[in-house]
Amino acid sequence: GSLPAPADIQGLLAEAHERYREDRRGAVADYIPALAAADPDLFGLSLGGVDGAVHSVGDAAVEFSLQSISKAFLFALVDSELGHETVRRAVGVNNTGLPFDSVMAIELNAGRPMNAMVNAGAIATTGLVPGGTADERWEFIIGGLSSFAGRDLDVDAEVYRSETASNGRNISIAGLLRSYGTLAADPRETVDLYTRQCSVNVTAEDLAIMGATLARGGVNPRTGQRLVEPSVCRDTLAALAASGLYERSGDWLYEIGMPGKSGVSGGLVTISPGKGALGSFSPPLDPAGNSVRGQRAAHFLSSALGLNLFASR
Ligand code: GLN
Question: Do 70-198 and 6-66+202-304 have the same topology in CATH?
Fold first, then answer.
């Protein structure tokens, strides 16, 4: 199957925006001070097809930091370098059943980070990034994320500064992994690289393109560039299906029926393999840290656009 006609997509995006814009549930993340200032009324939706067409409504061109959504694309980049088995062994692909910043999840699993979509696993994945120096490793990360978006992305300096100043928990997680031998790289440097990648600015439209690149088997529909092999996209989407919305990943899959990844600044990307991806931005979050309006819009559009992977028709 393919996506509906462009005019139908545009109309359904507008309908989703209209339906959920007044939903005031959820709360903007405030454990990172710079995120607490986000406008809770911002709401943007963008759908990117594997053919490169992009449809948007609302605040789809407003920039926000990637936060945990970076984890999905970092996983793809590292999986592409090191391969399926190495990443499984080093990081894992099972859900923790616990919040994204859980220390308990590490303790309960003999020091294994469990999956790349929570902080411990993303820090472990960042520790696997190739490069001889921190600068080279950063170039690998920012270059890779930019290739997924099809444009040069930059760090939000204020978010990076704010998150660096309030990063005690992630530094502790890296130290704990290091003590178990599940992080070989320097913990401080690894957390800094992780924090920088979380601070990279994107728009909902960028998320749609980044997701559509995974939906298309690794070719960016905006630039035509091949970034990763189809097998890497399969690995990434499987990891997202299991853990992309943290401990709520089962509920998400049950309701939306597609792999997705959320971040605490309010971004959400939902991928339909072979068809395209939905990018959304709306800062208020549910208790697990997933955008409230983003989830509702994905639910409506999954059904309206016929995207659910488990639907036979
Ligand atoms: N940078 C954030 C953190 O490490 C990312 C968390 C998230 O988006 N869930 O806490």
Answer: yes
Nearest-Å Rg of the Cα atoms of the chain is 18
Q: CATH for 70-198? A: 3.40.710.10
Is ligand 1 within 6 A of the CB of residue 249? no
3-state secondary structure of 30: coil
Query: Does the complex come out with an ipTM higher than 0.90?
Result: yes
DSSP output for 249-283: HHHHHHHH-S-EEE-TTSEEEEEETTTEEEEEE--
Mean pLDDT of 72-91: 97
Quote the ligand 1 centre to 220 CA distance (angstroms). 26
Task: Answer yes or no: is pLDDT of 312 > 90.
Answer: no
Q: What is the mean pLDDT of residues 69-86?
A: 98
Q: Which atom of ligand 1 is nearest to the CA of 163?
A: 1
| CA-199 nearest atom, ligand 1 | 1
Locate the ligand 1 atom nearest the alpha carbon of residue 31 and give its number.
10
CB of 69 shorter than 6 A to ligand 1:
no
Q: Which CATH number fits domain 6-66+202-304: 3.20.20.220, 1.10.8.10, 3.40.710.10, 2.60.40.10?
A: 3.40.710.10
Which residue has 């853990």 as its token pair?
243
Give distance in angstroms: CA of 275 to centre of ligand 1: 28
173 ligand 1 Cβ < 6 A:
no
How confident is the model over 276-309, as pLDDT tens digits?
Answer: 999 999 999 999 999 999 999 999 999 999 999 9
d(CA 91, CA 29): 27
Residue nearest to atom 2 of ligand 1 (CA): 67
Q: How confident is the model at residue 1, as a pLDDT?
A: 67
For the chain, the domains span 6-66+202-304, 70-198
